[in-house]
Design a protein that fits this description.
Layout (H helix, E strand, L loop, with lengths): L2 H26 L2 E3 L11 E3 L1 E8 L4 E4 L2 E2 L17 E6 L2 E8 L6 E7 L4 E8 L7 E5 L6 E2 L6 E4 L4 E4 L4 E4 L8 E3 L5 E4 L2 E4 L5 E4 L8 E6 L4 E6 L2 E6 L4 E7 L3 E7 L2 E8 L2 E8 L5 E7 L4 E5 L4 E5 L4 E5 L7 E5 L4 E6 L2 E5 L3 E6 L4 E7 L4 E7 L4 E6 L2 E6 L8 E5 L1 E8 L5 E8 L2 E8 L2
Parallel strand pairs: 3-9
Antiparallel strand pairs: 1-2, 3-6, 4-5, 4-7, 7-8, 10-41, 11-12, 12-13, 13-14, 15-16, 16-17, 17-18, 19-20, 20-21, 21-22, 23-24, 24-25, 25-26, 27-28, 28-29, 29-30, 31-32, 32-33, 33-34, 35-36, 36-37, 37-38, 39-40, 40-41
Length: 444
């Protein structure tokens, strides 16, 4: 090799070294070369951005604009595929379609925007399991009653069955029928028919059958250890510890009633007019009386809230304890509703799902659907919504700009949707194949 060739190669290596050093330095400093043609020499270099990404669960493969993200072999020797959690540097500014995939889970997509010289955080991704529902009880359609708090038990009132959700074993109640189930606060006792039953032991703690066939519409006030009932045109109560019965109020036509915090709430029909009246349950003193439109009214209580619902008009009345005007809010039409806290409500009217913050008065339309809804649940902390029609259960992450639902399962006659206390399992009634009954579906 003559000197001229050696000098040329030396100069070439120097040029390559300078260019490589420049490119590596630009890359390390967070810059990239614009890949546009024809090149604009005043805009050859641009500042890149960074993506910080996490998901639940970890270990999800990452795609940007359909391209699977891999480690640079120069900087991360021996590693190839990038999975969450991670940070991806030196992304050219612009809009990307981000897609996460993990075996056994439904994929997730979201539009993200990378800004020049800035870090973009994408940490609200939840992937849901792609699983098949499993049957825990075969039964006919009925209103399933789930226990509060830990949701250890569910009751199938028409079949007279209690199912322990932890062990998935069942036990038989002495009564059966389409009767309301009232739960203790810890979910281990129920008032069903005319018996107070301990679900842990299966024993009857209190039997009200001695009150006679005329005693109906039992209501258990756990805090005062009283059980109220209607008999002979009056609302009465019995103190369970002392087995002493007394009349609370009488002389009216009591369409519905409930007791909460020492107050007796009634719906009374008087001269073809409907009234909501509130009494002191201990002294029988009338505290307030409010006119209501003609309707078909029921009370419903949770640990934090008391509601009055008109089934005819599909009107929900949120009630306020000890207020001069007990009706705090009226909403219609409402087909089904849930209180996620004492001040936060979600409901649907058949095709639209709404939320309401009672403190601020803010009401939001969460999602609109094309099939009539039969069930609703929301994990507010992670902001995903689960809802069902008669034929499918869907879930949507409300953190995403494009709220594309994922169909978790398809079946027939889906109803009675409920989340467990950890928000990881959905329970529901459905017919799958030839088996109708209660199913569970793992979310995470």
């Amino acid at each position: 090799m003559n000197k001229r060739i050696r000098d040329s190669l030396f100069i070439l290596f120097i040029i390559i070294f300078v260019i490589t050093t420049l490119l590596v330095s630009l890359y390390a400093a967070g810059y990239s070369i614009r890949r546009s043609w024809p090149p604009r020499f005043g805009q050859l270099v641009e500042r890149t951005g960074m993506l910080l990404l996490d998901s639940e669960p970890d270990g999800s493969a990452i795609f940007l604009n359909g391209e699977k993200q891999r480690r640079s072999w120069l900087l991360d020797l021996g590693r190839d595929e990038i999975t969450t959690p991670t940070k991806i540097k030196n992304l050219v500014p612009g809009e990307y379609t981000l897609r996460l995939e993990k075996e056994g889970y439904w994929p997730l997509e979201k539009k993200i925007k990378i800004e020049s010289g800035q870090a973009t955080f994408a940490e609200d991704f939840i992937l849901f399991r792609r699983t098949t529902p499993s049957n825990i009880a075969i039964c006919a359609p009925q209103d399933i009653s789930f226990g509060p708090e830990k949701k250890t038990y569910l009751v199938l009132p028409n079949d007279g069955l209690v199912i322990n959700l932890k062990t998935e074993t069942s036990s038989t109640l002495t009564d059966k029928g389409a009767m309301p189930v009232q739960w203790s606060q810890n979910g281990t006792q129920i008032l069903f028919s005319d018996k107070l039953i301990n679900l842990n032991s299966g024993n009857t703690n209190y039997d009200l059958s001695s009150l006679g066939d005329g005693a109906t519409n039992f209501f258990w006030d756990e805090s005062s250890k009283k059980i109220y009932y209607q008999s002979g045109g009056a609302i009465n109560c019995i103190i369970t510890d002392e087995q002493v019965a007394s009349t609370v109020i009488s002389g009216g036509t009591y369409v519905a009633y409930t007791v909460r915090g020492g107050l007796l709430y009634t719906i009374e029909n008087e001269a073809d007019r409907i009234f909501l009246r509130v009494y002191d349950a201990n002294t029988s003193t009338l505290r307030s009386s409010s006119d209501l439109p003609a309707g078909d009214y029921i009370f419903r209580q949770t640990e934090t809230n008391l509601d009055l619902y008109d089934r005819r008009q599909q009107a929900l009345y949120a009630l306020s304890d000890y207020a001069l005007q007990p009706i705090a809010k009226q909403i219609k039409p409402v087909s089904s509703w849930q209180w996620l806290s004492a001040k936060f409500l979600i409901w649907h009217n058949g095709y639209e799902i709404y939320s309401l913050d009672m403190d601020s008065g803010r009401q939001d339309l969460l999602i609109r659907v094309s099939e009539e809804l039969t069930g609703l649940a929301w994990n507010r902390s992670k902001n995903y919504l689960i809802y069902s029609s008669a034929n499918q259960i869907q879930i949507v992450n409300l953190n995403l700009e494009v709220k594309t639902p994922i169909t978790l399962t398809q079946a027939e006659n889906i109803s009675n949707l409920s989340l467990d206390e950890r928000n990881q399992i959905i329970y529901f009634y459905a017919k799958i194949g030839e088996e109708s009954g209660v199913y569970k579906l793992q979310l995470q």
